[in-house]
Amino acid sequence: MSEIPFYITTPIYYVNDKPHIGHAYTSIACDVMARYMRLEGREVRFLTGTDEHGQKVEKSAGSANLTPQEFVDMVSESFRELAGELQLSHDDFIRTTQPRHIRAAQAMWDALMAKGDIYLGSYAGWYSVRDEAFYGEEELVGGIAPTGAPVEWVEEPSYFFRLSKWQEPLLAYFEAHPEFIAPEARRNEVISFVKGGLRDLSISRTSFLWGVRVPNQDAHVIYVWLDALVNYLTAVGYPDVTCDLYQTFWEHADVTHVVGKDILRFHAVYWPAFLMSVGVPLPRQIFAHGWWTNEGQKISKSLGNVIKPEQLIETYGLDQTRYFLLREVPFGADGNFSRLAMVQRINSELANTIGNLAQRSLSMVQKQCGGRVPSRDGMVAGDQDVLMRAYGLQEAVRTSLVDFKFHAALEAVVEVGRALNEYIDAQAPWVLKKTDVSRMEAVLYTLLEGIRCIALCLQPFMPTAADKMLFQLSVPENARMNACVSAEYALISGAVLPEPEGIFPRFQVVEEG
Ligand code: MSP
Fold first, then answer.
1. Fewer CB within 10 Å, N- or C-terminus of the chain?
2. Where does residue 306 fall: left (phi above 0), alpha (psi -120 to 50 degrees), or beta otherwise?
């Protein structure tokens, strides 16, 4: 187990719009990692928050007839609420309008300036407000950004960052640290982008006001992406690089930024270049996940098919939603949300496989063993084999999650659930109760112990359901770490168990129309 502190961040979300499934997805994935690492016994810090400056936000505030500050206060609150609804276990919620962040962004500016990496020039080129990104003429496709966003011609005085100077150091860094950008396919894309040549980057704007002021240059505000990226440092105390938080969670930590594939370039090219320039250590990894479509269609406000996280939670339940999003699609690949797929996952894997297994086993223990953990005296080699599979989950989940393979970790857990269901059918404890009580008890013991391992492994993914399962097995709070998925922490025969209760109800499809 690694002793290195773990710092994980979500992107900070633009407050031009209400939260949707994309935001929920990144946040849930980070939450699962943060919870998992805590259960590994590591020191963890988990950051999320909101990105509140820039032209896009300023325009949205105008359309809502609010001042930018009123507007960002309102929308930022809806992201904070979402964090609560998703049961995120974040340690900090950052807003880029906070004084601590303005101070950090300006300090970063001063540091880049002191390194001679900023110069004054003027920008003439294409800008997309929707993407908050500059585009070269050659990148446009039929007069619009490659992302499909409209662009406008911008000409204004601007400060530039000497990005071109960092092309070779970046390539050398990618080469020396193959794990820096994941997954592999995305890493290759970034490398070819950088090899294609880096132009200096415009990092200040003068045509609007809603941003962090460039120190001593009141006419300029800092480009929103430079401002935003610094949030990861602000939250650990930058520019105070001697404070404990910074020392623990930046200087000596595994820092992981989880982002959507659309914003990888900002994180994997601009951000490391800024950090190299000022001599701050680079994060360990940037992981780019894919995008969700809705019933096969791109999700967009204009199509009116935005999926609201609170509706998913209301319809399917929070644990079920968290499970589906991470189980359905390998993290890194694009995924399609469909009601049918959601219902199938809930019913086949949660209700039929895991829920049913727990219900059957626990209610039999309640009736046949007086509500106590049964005796293991009658155990045979075959039972031990079943248990070894369950204990093997500790390693299977670990190797999957190191690579953000949430779906594979869950597949391994469900696989053990399936094996236990086959075992219960084959052993038929309801027959043994008449023929061989000692064997019946051993079989029920094996089942409970397998369910304990499943529940422990599900904790980061479905905190409420896993807690209920562990409660029903009387597993104390201090025996719920990942290391407890082992024989050493096995249930103790004779321990009293509470009345069992269903955990994963079957989802009934109500036909529309
Ligand atoms: N503010 C910037 C990030 C700054 S980080 C220093 C931003 N914000 S955002 O609100 O537009 O997007 C946040 C995240 O949501 C991105 O990682 C993006 O990939 C993700 N998603 C937006 N729509 C999505 C889907 N349809 N599916 C999955 N994730 C998507 O970018």
1. C
2. beta
For residue 356 the two structure tokens come to 């049913």
Tallying the residues shown for the chain, one arrives at: 513
pLDDT digits (tens, 9 = 90+) for 400-458: 999 999 999 999 999 999 999 999 999 999 999 999 999 999 999 999 999 999 999 99
pLDDT tens-digit series, residues 359-390: 999 999 999 999 999 999 999 999 999 999 99
Q: Distance from the CA of 57 to the center of ligand 1, in angstroms? A: 15
The segments of the chain whose pLDDT lies below 70 read 1-2, 510-513
d(C-alpha 68, C-alpha 60), whole Å: 8
What are 232's two structure tokens? 């990861």
Nearest to 202 by CA among 173, 148, 163: 163
Q: Using the mean position of ligand 1's atoms as its centre, give its distance from the Cα of residue 376 in Å.
A: 51
Residue 23 in tokens: 């935001």
How close is the Cα of 26 to the center of ligand 1, in Å?
Answer: 8
Residue nearest to atom 12 of ligand 1 (CA): 13
Mutate to test the pocket of ligand 1, among 259, 265, 267, 274 (most ligand atoms within 8 A of CB): 259
